[in-house]
Write a structure and sequence with these properties.
54% helix, globular, transmembrane, 3-stranded antiparallel β-sheet, mainly alpha, binds protoporphyrin IX containing FE
Length: 338
């Protein structure tokens, strides 16, 4: 990405699309040991499936009716799901063939290798079913790409608007890394960047709610929630509640996180949950945070960012909160040693 940007200095760049390619490549390489191009078809099918899920998720269905009559969207979803399954089977077969042909002595120790290993377990009790294997891959492709894609996009938007925070973040990055590539020890010291990430997650966290099914009837204040009800408690409601965050709740103020999350939330753990809470919280939180910090550090080491007049603010929810018309910025080189 940065190599490509060298030819676009002083010009407008649509960073949401740039980060789509970057985050697709990162999750493909780290979790699946492949490239974005290999996973491209899966990403494309998942995107179409996601649009359909998004359109239909709040529609009411009558139980059992789907068995007798299927809507066009449902038929299309089934076709897409089958396409994704075929793609996953193909990459499973590739890993299995490498072991059978003696090109590798195991299925690999990346996320996908562990799944293929569990899928080939001879013990029926431990064996992962094909359906579970496909579902795990779908979750990782979607959860591992779109979320960081959105987060990086919204952070760059904020840095382009709030030049003082961009400068503070850059000073910190240069103090810690100079013109070296980011390293893990330095990543843990990025305090200002952590504040900027948290504030962006509060205002434009990729997940706006946590889907749950009510296990047994429960009373919530005046509400009685029956068992099996699907609910979507909105964390965005908590993140933008003036009682929790004060009158400037809608403003970008990373300084609220200067003394950590506990202090910012006045020790109310559930006031800030961009990665969820409890046993189902995000398994990719640390991965996502490190990926975001590396990408931002490398950009800030090289470029100043200003907002292009072409940018139109229009966040839209398509499972994650994304900029409907992209994020257009102009980058100028810093003229250092890169
Ligand atoms: C900014 C980035 C990210 C955000 C904001 C985010 C947020 C979330 C949220 C809110 C949940 C649901 C938690 C719940 O229901 O309580 C979740 C689940 C999950 N996330 Fe993330 N996520 C991010 C990045 C990632 C990445 C990079 C990966 C993979 C490498 C990942 C993998 C997962 C998985 C597998 C689950 C399902 C966990 C389960 O159901 O047990 N996420 N994430």
């Amino acid at each position: 990405m940065l190599e490509k940007w060298k030819g676009q200095e002083g010009q407008e760049i649509e960073v949401f699309q740039e980060f789509r390619l970057l985050t697709s490549e990162v999750i493909s390489k780290t979790a699946f040991g492949s490239s974005y191009l290999e996973g491209e078809k899966i990403f494309a099918l998942l995107y179409k499936l996601k649009i359909l899920v998004n359109l239909n998720m709040s529609k009411t269905t009558i139980p059992f009716i789907n068995k007798l009559w299927k809507s066009t969207d449902l038929l299309e979803s089934e076709k897409l799901a089958k396409g994704i399954q075929d793609c996953v089977i193909k990459i499973v077969k590739k890993r299995e063939d490498q072991v059978v042909n003696g090109e590798a002595d195991s299925f690999g120790n990346d996320f996908f290798g562990l799944l293929v290993d569990a899928y080939n377990d001879l013990d029926e009790k431990n064996k992962l079913s094909l359906q579970d294997l496909v579902d795990e891959c779908k979750t990782f492709y979607i959860a591992g790409q779109e979320t960081v894609n959105s987060l990086l996009g919204w952070i760059v938007l904020h840095l382009a608007i709030y030049g003082d925070w961009q400068e503070k973040a850059r000073r910190e990055v240069i103090d810690i890394f100079g013109n070296q590539n980011p390293h893990l020890e330095g990543i843990t010291k990025l305090k200002t960047m952590t504040m900027i990430i948290n504030e962006t997650l509060r205002l434009y966290g990729p997940s706006n709610g946590l889907a749950r099914t009510v296990a047994r009837e429960v009373q919530l204040g005046k509400l009685v929630l029956p068992a099996k009800l699907d609910i979507l408690p909105l964390n965005i409601g908590l993140h933008r509640d003036p009682h929790l965050w004060g009158d400037n709740v809608h403003l970008f103020k990373p300084e609220r996180f200067a003394d950590g999350i506990a202090k910012a939330t006045n020790y109310t753990a559930a006031a800030f949950l961009p990665f969820g809470l409890g046993p189902r919280s995000c398994v990719g939180m640390t991965f996502a945070t490190i990926e975001t910090k590396i990408a931002l550090s490398m950009i800030l080491q090289r470029y100043t960012i200003t907002l292009s007049p072409a940018y139109v603010h229009s966040p839209i929810l398509i499972l994650t909160v994304r900029p409907q018309h992209g994020i257009q910025v102009i980058i100028e080189p810093l003229h250092n040693n890169f």
